[in-house]
Amino acid sequence: MSQNLLKGKKGIIFGALNDQSIAWKTAEICYQQGAQIVLTNAPIALRMGEINKLAEACGNAPVIGADVTNMDDLKNLFEKSMEHFGGTIDFVLHSVGMSMNIRKGNMYTGLNHDFQHKTFDISAMSLHRVCQVAYELDAMSEWGSIVALTYIAAQRVFPDYNEMADAKALLESIARSFGYHYGVKKKVRINTISQSPTRTTAGSGVKGFDGFINYAEKMSPLGNASAEDCANYCAVMFSDMTRMVTMQNLFHDGGFSFTGVTQAVIEQMEK
Predict the structure, then answer these.
(1) 3.30.300.20, 3.40.50.720, 2.40.10.10, 3.40.50.2300: which CATH number matches 10-209+224-259?
(2) pTM of the prediction?
């Protein structure tokens, strides 16, 4: 059901690959809530994914390829988006992450450090680039909102999450630091959302994912938050209802982050 939370707003959604992805769901929800959007992903992801279907479902939204490690690509993305919208941008979703070490099966104690640098570049430094390009182009509207997706492994050890835990910690730090500067300049707010483990293409690539998602379900009083739940939360964070929220890491995980143990887990351990 639409409450027109984003009526008249314009935004860029990074990272929609297929209908499992949080970015895909967020684009759908934002459009339903009255927003106009531009979709973007890496050129290779555009070839592999089904983003044109999403674009059609979202009012024939433009699809503009951009490599998040390339400042020229990002500048082109923001300039073309502003041209399409006829003005500045109200919100941005950063839903970007990739780990070559996880893909190659390298354990945290035996990382390929060239791969690790690439992971940081794509999964964390890309947020700084996005913010910096928007800042330099004065592309964001006053009281605009930038949200990046993260995970609680930035604060706690989840061994199989590997180097992505370090990348998410850096991502959250960038959101805080850039959030200060952008807030002072133009009241733009920057936050991260720490989502439950979610059955996306990226999430499912983590070793032992099925067992962990079941554990998280038992450890969360409300259960795991779905991709659609997260999309709804993103829409609220893009809306004027959250204008004074910035530089925060916001847990969206059914209570997992503040639960020590649940009866369901105790019963499972006693079996």
Answers:
(1) 3.40.50.720
(2) 0.95
